Amino acid sequence: MKSLLTLLVSTMFLTAIAPTYGQSSADNPFFSAYKTPFGVPAFDKIRPEHFEPAFDEGIKQQSAEIANIVNQKATPTFGNTIEALEASGELLSRTSTVFFNLNSANTSDALQKIAQAVAPKLAKNGDDIALNPALFQRVKTVYDQRAKLKLTPEQQRLLEKTYKNFVRGGAALTAEKQERLRKINAELSVLTLKFGQNLLAENNAYTLVIDKPEDLSGLPASLVNAAADEAKKRNQQGKWVFTLQNPSIMPFLQYADNRALREQIFKAYLERGNHNDARDNKGLMASLVKLRAEKAQLLGYANHAAFVLEESMASTPAKVSELLNQLWAAAQPVTKQEAAELQALMDKEGKNEKLASWDWRYYAEKLRKQKYALDGEQLRPYFSLENVRDGIFMLTNRLYGLRFEPRKDLPVYHEEVLGYEVKEADGRHVGILYMDFHPRASKRGGAWMTSYRRQEVQNGQKIAPVVSIVCNFSRPSGNTPALLSLEETRTFFHEFGHALHGLLSNVTYGSLSGTSVPRDFVELPSQIMENWSQEAQMLKLYAKHYQTGEVIPDAFIEKINRSSLFNQGFETTEYLAASLLDMDYHTLTPDQMPTDVLAFEKQSMDKIGLIEQIPPRYRSTYFQHVFAGGYSAGYYSYIWSAVLDADAFEVFKQKGLFDAQSAQSFRKNVLERGGTEEPMTLYKKFRGAEPDIKPLLRRRGLLRDL
After folding, report:
1. Which of 114, 77, 295 lies closest to 193 in space, CA to CA?
2. Closest CA relative to residue 366, chosen from 376, 353, 354
3. CA 390 from chain center: how many Å?
4. 185 part of a folded domain
5. Catalytic residue among 90, 294, 365, 495
6. Whose CA is closest to 58, among 82, 24, 33, 84?
7. The model's pTM
8. Is 523 a catalytic residue?
9. Does 305 reside within a domain?
10. Both 400 and 488 in a single domain?
11. pLDDT tens digits for 296-345?
């Protein structure tokens, strides 16, 4: 069964070989196999009006498929029940996959209205399956006989996961509680969509318009040119427009000499979703937290975090808190020392002002230049988007033998999207990779990887995956190509790691394929890729000046390495603060939900002693990961996976940066296996032991504090 919960977070299975469906519209591309290269979605033919009929027909077909499973007279078996359930909902999955991906990467008013309309239908369909007593009884019958069945390890894993999904979906509840669960699920489906739509609107609503050249003081030419380009797009020629998109606001905060303007744009950033208007998210997120807590208790869990974490590597809120608090204790003294250094720099300049949150990045950049003579803008010319892309291609070729060939014949959902065919070293087809790099009003913020088709085996034939990377990187400006910051470069490597997880999957069942793993394990393939991005040996292969072709000088590499621990207190603290805020919300019971979420947020941050100059990376009203992105009670997973990736990368540091044997072991034991085994089992098959936290602490300069 194509899980509706999975569909709604847009990492979904989509089949390449689809039967012809009964058509409600002769030209609806969802009702027949895509007549495209490699069976990729027919983006050139898909229109908004095609979605609702396809959703309705998909729900109708899956309902009929479930009825066939339930009504058969044959004794329940793994094949006629578990595999039949796994195969159901093909049309619905095809439609949902394209729709929710487009709604994130290239939305419109029409798509947003459709999302609101179909969300309750999808929630109901999911509940109709999860709460079907006859279907659950068949699944339970097979599950109870599992010890007697001759199943492969992957079949055993699918059976266990299917049974648990029914129990966690409410199948064992009383009829009265099931009815309440249905109402909660319907409400949650709408609220999460609305939260994300509000945030997108908030991001697009604000602009900082500058019309005086002196107000551009301190800003690098690349940012000024980009702001001028943005102004032209908005018919404000002769001015400069800055937005809340990361490639605009973050360098502005880093370089703008005008403190008042830094304060203005940063406060706008902090107040997203908090204006007591139609786009306000306070009430939405409060309802989300309360409903999640109520649902968890209905299902027999103490709170939402306990429900979520049962299926994670961490397993309990207590273990998550233990890790986060251990790291907090190490990071907090470093953060306070950093704040004191920045305040001293302000004092030395005679500002007679107290360090504020809108000053941190500005003075941190000044201090970085003083300590390490490192200017991020001097590095950008060595990290053109094309060079970084080619470097990643080169790295994956050395590690895994992969080749990436541009395909101009693939339909795309936006003119900026690029398509590649991915091949093994011997030319065998691996899958299709789409990449979508730059911000636009129709795209939500951040960066992510998603799937249009998951790898699986159908009728003995391996179905190749179709995956996509979606980012919000700095745009080209004039005749200058897109030049990435070090942070954007790391992000590209990160998302490519997710893409490899999807592309290199080699399993039988789609619901166990690729990134279908616990949240706190899914970040391992992405975060380990980041390690290569700044290794000297790797930098010399791809970091080349976009004009001269000069390889990045050793002096710059040395500065990058020397400054690697700089500002790590800030980086770690703002992340941990958001993670702890997430856990505080999701360990509440329904009767504990505060009426004032901002007061609760402040109380949460005061409790851990977050200094006033650093807000959590995501405040409550724009915490998209948690309230609209599938990471509720799971934002901690990045740091959990960081422990794994730092420990795992030690293998390559010891055996060689491009050691083929180590790479093949990582591919075989992690990237190919998806969710077919317990994550720790897979990790130990690669590493030989459970992870050690010390490599992460060393990498962040925090080891001395424990």
Report:
1. 114
2. 376
3. 23
4. no
5. 495
6. 24
7. 0.93
8. no
9. no
10. yes
11. 999 999 999 999 999 999 999 999 999 999 999 999 999 999 999 999 99
